[in-house]
Amino acid sequence: MKALYLIIPFAPLLAAIVAGLAGRRVGRVGAHSVTIFAVLLSFLCSCVVFWDVLQGNTFNGPVYTWLTMGETRLEIGFLIDPLTTLMMVVVTFVSLMVHVYTIGYMAEDPGYQRFFSYISLFTFAMLMLVMANNFLQLFFGWEAVGLVSYLLIGFWYTRESAVYANLKAFLVNRVGDFGFLLGIALILATTGTLDYVEVFDAAAAGELDTVITLTCILLFIGAMGKSAQFPLHVWLPDSMEGPTPISALIHAATMVTAGIFMVARMSPLYEMSETARSVVLVIGAITALFMGLVALTQYDIKRVVAYSTLSQLGYMTAALGASAYSAAMFHLMTHAFFKAVLFLAAGSVIIALHHEQDMRKMGALRKYMPITYWTLLIGAIASAGIPPFAGFFSKDAIIEAVHLSQTPGATFAYLCVLSCVFVTAAYTFRLVFMAFHGEPRFDVAHPPHESPKVVTVPLVLLAIPSIASGWWIGSVVFGDYFGSSIVVNPAHANIATMRQEYHGLWGYLLHGLTAAPFWLALAGIATAWYLYRVRTDLPKKIAMRFGPLYALVERKYGFDELYQWLFAGGARTIGEGFWKGGDQRTIDGLLVNGSARLVGWFSSVVSLFQSGLIYKYAVLMLSGILLGMTWFLFLAPKG
């Protein structure tokens, strides 16, 4: 099995090296063939490891010792348990679908080989992150996915907007990563180790009691950056500047899920700090509702899906704060499938409309793109939380867990996540009705057509788990699937309370049909239908009626402008101050030019005594003699 553990992350790495360094030699076909084969191999090996773990076999051990400092060993190692294998299967499957899809989407792009190299490298980085058994390797994967996302968001580097977006993502994540690094340093300073199991044992022994809240909050600041939680959410919508395949990979299965996975992995620590869990819960609830509202005001089809990702990540984060780690991971899995479908279907539309992304210039696409329409509709239903689609099971479990939570802020969080059900259904079906129904608002003389099979086959394959993956809620959420890989304090066991009321899949379905979330979802769909199919004049009137409030939401609550003024503008102001006050006035003006002027002035004074005229020298000599005689004769003290 150890050989498989090595193949899973390193096969995509080797493929990335081949496609990146030998891309011109192997050509386009060679680049996509080697990377797709590598990711396929990684996926198949992940499935084998997943099955082996289901049989009760786990692994935790080093692969390579990088550095030894006294008793502290810095190692590369793997922790293979149910939590890890779930992520391995999800990451490799979604990545495989994105790789295949990319053949069609990037067919005419001159950077074809480079893109395949990047996405294969991205897969390697995420796998190293989720397979880590220590904080050093976790941090390596954490930074690696950040670096590759920077390269991918700015893939079209000739576009100024893409360069701005990748720099924004990089800088915002530096803020989060600074907190994350401080948290890891605090753990090392307190326990003397970076190994997960040793840290958890030290925490259970009380070694972290004095710093546990600070440690958890610092680690969560890192998660806020990677998983785009308020107020470090601003980079994720701008990541849409990258090609659609990478938007799907970032939003569905890799970078943004890293923070959720990390907090779930650190459950033994978070269970020891109610304050930290409260922060996580409230931040997640705010992100879920308020980012969902922004999606209602967007017209760029990819940005609607991007804000949907922010909102769904908020659900997962709220679940973590409510100690419902299994529900958070289950929603991460179901969300990976239906969000990948939504993004890739949006990309299919963009291909058909020659890279048009404004939904106001779409309409009636279901007649021209039936496969894209039906797969996107499946993703939309799952996202809205309609049974028996996957999103219904995972989202309802989160809402109920938050409702039962005793963590401070739980009431506020419950109102947010419950309200967000209506908002989610509304913005998701607003996209469906605007893009695929009604009258065509594009040039009918050049109608779109269905995308090629390399685009539609991944859509169909992803649509299947978007329907069926939720049916495993009994074993994943309410069963003992995660075992000891997730630790929950019995006092916070909301999932255990829900387990007592779980009476099988059909019972859960029937109960869901009578619960508030289901009816709120139907109300959201009905509202979207009425506003965008029946009374299409009303959205504009509503926007005008709530002018200032609508403008605030449409401008994303002004966070972009605030950060631009406060941080970017502040940095420029400080830089200008150092430039003018420090460089020009102090260094150049006072030290460099000032010393030169002082020497010049002193020289001009001395030059008065060095004229070269004998009579001046004689006058000076006589003046000196007279002054000396005056001193000795009249001013000197008498002995």
Strands of the largest sheet, in order across it?
1-2
| pLDDT < 50 stretches | none
Q: Counting H and I runs of at least 4 residues, what is the number of helices? A: 27
Strand residue percentage: under 5%
Largest sheet: 2 strands, antiparallel
Name the shape in a single word: globular
- Give the SSE order as H and E letters: HHEEHHHHHHHHHHHHHHHHHHHHHHHHH
Protein structure class? mainly alpha
How are the secondary structure elements laid out?
Elements: H1 2-21, H2 23-54, E1 59-69, E2 72-80, H3 82-105, H4 112-131, H5 135-153, H6 160-191, H7 196-204, H8 212-226, H9 235-238, H10 244-252, H11 255-265, H12 267-270, H13 274-295, H14 301-321, H15 325-352, H16 370-384, H17 390-404, H18 410-436, H19 453-468, H20 473-476, H21 494-501, H22 505-514, H23 516-534, H24 538-545, H25 547-554, H26 559-607, H27 614-635
Antiparallel strand pairs: 1-2
Helix pairs in contact: 1-2, 1-4, 2-3, 2-4, 3-4, 3-10, 3-15, 3-19, 4-5, 5-6, 6-8, 8-11, 8-13, 10-15, 11-14, 11-15, 13-14, 13-18, 14-15, 14-17, 14-18, 15-16, 15-17, 15-19, 16-18, 16-19, 17-18, 17-21, 18-23
